[in-house]
Amino acid sequence: MEPHVVVIGAGFGGLNAAKALARRPVRVTVLDRHNYHLFQPLLYQVATATLSPGDVASPIRWILRGAPNVRVLLGEAVSVDTAGRRVRLEDGSLLDYDFLIVATGSSHTYFGNDQWAPCAPGLKTLEDALEIRRRILLAFERAERETDQARRQELLTFVLVGGGPTGVELAGTLGEIARQTLRHEFRSIDPRRARIVLVEAGPAILPSFPRNLREAARTALHRLGVDVREGTAVTAIDQHGVTLGRERLAAGTVLWTAGVTASPLVRTLGAPLDRPGRVVVAPDLSVPGHPEVFVVGDAAAVLDRHGRPLPGVAPVAIQQARHAARTVLNRLRGRPGAAFVYRDKGNLAIIGRGAAIADLGWIRFSGVFAWLFWLFLHIVELIGFRSRLVVLVQWAVAYVTFQRSVRLITNVGRSDRSEPS
């Protein structure tokens, strides 16, 4: 019987590992707790009512339909028995493997302050995006009904904790929603008076970008009315705002776009972990002492040639997954594995309409051209002709009309329908 390769997770890493092993002399099982692959770089656009969930997610079975040696299973892995080469699922069933590729990604971490989670949701899943969309839209609706001016301003204040690409993209889009999309739709409030605060504990937002591009991003955010606070740590979060050092900032909506931690599954591998909980892998991405187990993507701690940790972005996960798949095939042929080398193709971040920054290594630029480049690249990377077409149409309509067509408030509970407190 052909060797069995189990791939846990169908994100960018897991999906590309499965594709690299398609139609090869191995049996492949892809295990994921969802039946869809999520295009995470555009998840913030679901959270800000530009795109629908179906625009950024595709069924895993459909994506891998042309790979007869690949089986897709819906389930959640809870532990790995590396000695017995078994994966235990949430329902107690076991999945044996000859080779294992762990691509379970990461989730947001509150740095030991998990009590902040209900007050400041992060953005990692479709469920997170829909919850954030609900909170943003409800804030404006509640402010329209509120007669107390102080409470109204609190409802119209949005705080984003974390100045990485996700925080910058969310802040910029929120600025556009308040100043363009909603400006003529309310009677009691002026959405343009919404206050958007982006808080970064480090010395600068977008720390992975060069200084001139950070300055361009900061200028674009200021044009959208975003208050950028750098070198400012959040010390407390509750239902009515945040505390920044000794300053109290009343806010109806707080969103968490700061740190991440690796999936808890990797703790069962018995491998050394770094501070964010990622596996410190061998040069070929295998787990030390277990050459048949590989960890890729956000769950792996890998250094670049300058000794810096590789970022948790899609290109890293894709290249690592393909490398792990090649290593599996080489070992089956009796060939030695090679060390993983990341080929950095650049870094992009979008701030808002006609504003983005791009660092491609050999060239750095910002503004409209960077924005167009960002749009083109994401359209090309989307899976499936339908998704590309729908997203392209949605973006074109949003650009021409300044509107976002998916402004639906879902899961409205009794507390949401009651009078604001």
Main features:
single chain; 421 residues; alpha/beta; FAD/NAD(P)-binding domain; 6-stranded mixed β-sheet; 31% helix; globular
List the helices and strands and how they pair.
Layout: E1 4-8, H1 12-21, E2 27-32, E3 36-38, H2 43-47, E4 57-59, H3 60-63, E5 70-74, E6 77-81, E7 86-89, E8 94-96, E9 99-102, E10 106-108, H4 126-145, H5 149-155, E11 157-161, H6 165-181, E12 195-200, H7 211-223, E13 226-230, E14 234-238, E15 241-244, E16 247-250, E17 253-256, E18 260-262, E19 279-280, E20 286-287, E21 290-295, E22 300-301, H8 314-332, E23 347-352, E24 355-359, E25 364-366, H9 368-381, H10 385-401, H11 414-417
Parallel strand pairs: 1-2, 1-9, 2-5, 9-21, 11-12, 11-17, 12-13, 19-22
Antiparallel strand pairs: 3-4, 6-7, 7-8, 10-18, 14-15, 15-16, 20-21, 23-24, 24-25
Helix pairs in contact: 1-8, 4-5
Can you characterise this structure?
The protein is of the alpha/beta class and 421 residues long. It folds into two domains: 4-33 and 75-108 and 260-332, FAD/NAD(P)-binding domain (3-Layer(bba) Sandwich); 114-258 and 353-417, FAD/NAD(P)-binding domain, CATH 3.50.50. 31% of the residues lie in helices and 24% in strands. The strands form eight sheets. It has a six-stranded mixed sheet with strand order 5-2-1-9-21-20, with helices on one face. Strands 13-12-11-17 form a four-stranded parallel sheet. β7 and β8 form a beta hairpin. α1 runs parallel beside α8 and α4 packs antiparallel against α5 (149-155). It is globular and about 70 Å long. It starts with a strand and ends with a helix. Residues 417-421 have low confidence and may be disordered.
